Amino acid sequence: MLTADDKKHIVQLWEKVAGHQEEFGNEALQRMFITYPQTKTYFPHFDLHPGSEQIRGHGKKVAAALGNAVKSLDNLSQALSELSNLHAYNLRVDPANFKLLAQCFQVVLAAHLGKDYSPEMHAAFDKFLSAVAAVLAEKYR
Ligand code: ZNH
């Protein structure tokens, strides 16, 4: 459950991310594929080498989806409903992987934002990514 303070922090944080969405998304994915190589199994059709344009393109989509979610903090389920269908029925990504991407995204934020990624921001953003992951996983059965 996101508190009013969490929501405020998440919106503030995303203002700092907004100009770098593609770059941060790309770095988070590159990091995920190297740190947790098991995540590569979902992308057999991608070029997963460092510098891959496909990773960059996908990073842009994932970051844009997160940006949209930030605009809908009061009804994430509705905002992410199509993506939730896609992940549950088509992609069938093991939800454990959502935590791995979240972890990588947070390392990217810490590396780029430094002091601006304060413990309060970290706490709020971690709750946000967990909430997004919960929605993406809610239709699995
Ligand atoms: Zn996912 C896809 C988001 C996680 C795997 N995704 C996708 C997209 C998006 C997303 C936006 C696109 C769609 C369209 O196109 O329509 N994701 C997302 C988010 C998250 C995620 C937001 C969290 C946060 N995913 C994930 C993970 C994984 C995945 C963790 C594994 C590891 N996805 C995926 C895949 C796909 C996707 C495989 C498909 C790709 C292609 O293109 O093919």
Automatic annotation (TrEMBL):
Keyword Cytoplasm tagged: no
Q: Name one GO cellular component term.
A: blood microparticle
> What is the recorded function of this protein according to its Swiss-Prot or TrEMBL entry?
Involved in oxygen transport from the lung to the various peripheral tissues.
Which PROSITE patterns does the protein's record reference? GLOBIN
The family assignment reads: Belongs to the globin family.
Query: What is the superkingdom listed in this entry's lineage?
Result: Eukaryota
Domain Globin, residue spans: 1-141
Family matches, as InterPro entries: Globin, Globin-like_sf, Globin/Proto, Hemoglobin_a-typ, Hemoglobin_oxygen_transport, Hemoglobin_zeta
State which gene encodes it: HBA1
Please give one Pfam family short name: Globin
Q: Which GO terms describe its molecular function?
A: haptoglobin binding; heme binding; iron ion binding; organic acid binding; oxygen binding; oxygen carrier activity; peroxidase activity
Flavoprotein found in the keyword field: no
By its UniProt entry, which SUPFAM superfamilies does this protein fall under? Globin-like
Tell me, which GO biological process terms does this entry list? hydrogen peroxide catabolic process
Q: Which UniProt keywords are given for this protein, alphabetically ordered?
A: Heme, Iron, Metal-binding, Oxygen transport, Transport
Q: How does it assemble?
A: Heterotetramer of two alpha-D chains and two beta chains.
CDD domains the record matches: Hb-alpha-like
- What protein name applies here? Hemoglobin subunit alpha-D
